[in-house]
Specification:
Layout lengths: L12 E2 L12 H13 L4 E3 L8 H10 L8 E6 L1 E7 L20 E5 L3 H15 L6 E5 L3 H4 L3 H21 L5 E6 L3 H7 L8 E5 L8 H14 L2 E5 L12 E2 L2 E2 L2 H17 L3 H11 L3 E5 L5 H12 L4 H9 L13
Parallel strand pairs: 1-2, 2-3, 3-6, 6-7, 7-8, 8-9, 9-12
Antiparallel strand pairs: 4-5, 10-11
Helix pairs in contact: 1-2, 1-10, 3-5, 6-7, 8-11, 9-10
Length: 336
């Protein structure tokens, strides 16, 4: 099934930052940010056990408990089980994402994509979120950036465990949809070629942005569109570098990325365009993408995202981006 009828709009809220990504965020600030998203009309919220070892789920659930459950769409992820025993968050092996949630809860995280772990993860997430049901469940990070050369082994465990379990839960009506939530295109391409089970959608983070979209554009997005598998875009601001931050791919941005962003900003300023608007609208312009879920830790950022989605961008801006080879020649762009 397509999830377009399930999603309440093109703009959702990604809550990875609420897990104390990059910095320790006061509880009050986190709560105010979620409330701001609600006040701005956002009704799709995405989280994961991985985000601060359950911290994001707890914070999100605390706020959403004050709102009617039927009025919002909620997704979380499986693939990691959070234990009661403690570990040093800064010492975790997170592949290419080392230190990402060093300010999160100290609960030990175990990678596990088996059927039993999938069911346990869902049960634990429901408790942390304080809700009785999930709408969408993503299989999280079964890709090269976390598992390196062993990623195919992790993927195979997920295929025979998490994939089949979520497929059954969807068919039984326990959840409404499932898919993969990853930072690489290859696991999604592999999944599209499976005879079964069949996902409903993918959450692709960082791979369909102004700064990085060539690989996804070549095969993944056309194939997903042809099969009716929707794409939710995570990280449309490329970990913050396209929204005034200093991170790209969850680490300090390298010099070549900083230089590329400067070129995009110069064109944006010439055309009177906000770079957040350019980044967000570009990610949503492809017919296979159905929503984007930028993250935030400050209430003011939510209003900026809503304004960015509605900003009018002149066609000449996209023409100049193509001429400067800052976006692919065949990448769809918004129409005025």
């Amino acid at each position: 099934m397509s999830i377009t009828s399930l999603l309440p709009g093109a703009l959702g809220f990604g809550t990875a930052p609420l897990g104390n990504m990059f910095r320790a965020i006061p509880d009050a600030e986190a709560a105010a940010t979620v409330e701001a998203a609600w006040d701005q009309g956002i009704r799709y919220f995405d989280t994961a056990p991985f985000y601060g070892a359950g911290l994001s789920e707890i914070r999100l659930g605390d706020v959403l408990a004050g709102h009617p459950r039927d009025e919002y769409v909620l997704s979380t992820k499986v693939g990691r089980v959070i234990l009661d025993e403690a570990e040093d968050p800064a010492a975790r092996d997170l592949g290419e994402k080392g230190g990402l949630f060093e300010h999160g809860r100290p609960n030990k995280m175990v990678n596990d994509y088996t059927a039993d772990a999938t069911l346990r993860s869902i049960e634990d997430s429901l408790k942390r979120l304080g809700t009785d049901r999930l709408d969408i469940v993503w299989v999280h990070d079964v890709a090269q950036d976390f598992y390196g050369d062993e990623w195919l082994a992790a993927y195979e465990t997920a295929r025979t465990g998490a994939f089949r379990t979520l497929d059954r839960l969807r068919d039984e009506g326990v959840i409404k949809a499932w898919g993969l939530g990853v930072n690489r295109v290859e696991p999604l391409e592999l999944t599209l070629d499976l005879d079964e089970p069949k996902p409903d959608a993918f959450l692709l983070a960082g791979r369909y942005t102004l700064l990085d979209h060539d690989r996804a554009l070549q095969r993944l997005l056309p194939a997903a569109g042809a099969r009716g598998v929707d794409i939710v875009v995570g990280g449309p601001y490329s970990s913050g570098i396209l929204a005034g931050g200093s991170h790209f791919e969850y680490q300090k941005a390298p010099a070549e990325i900083i230089a590329k962003v400067a070129r995009i900003k110069a064109l944006a300023e010439r055309h009177g365009v906000g770079i957040k608007a350019a980044a967000l609208q570009f990610s949503l312009a492809h017919p296979a993408t159905v929503a984007a879920i930028p993250g935030a830790t400050k209430p003011s950022r939510i209003a900026e995202d809503v304004a960015a989605l509605g900003e009018k961008i002149p066609a000449a801006f996209w023409t100049d981006l193509r001429a400067e080879k800052l976006i692919a020649a065949d990448a769809p762009v918004p129409t005025v």
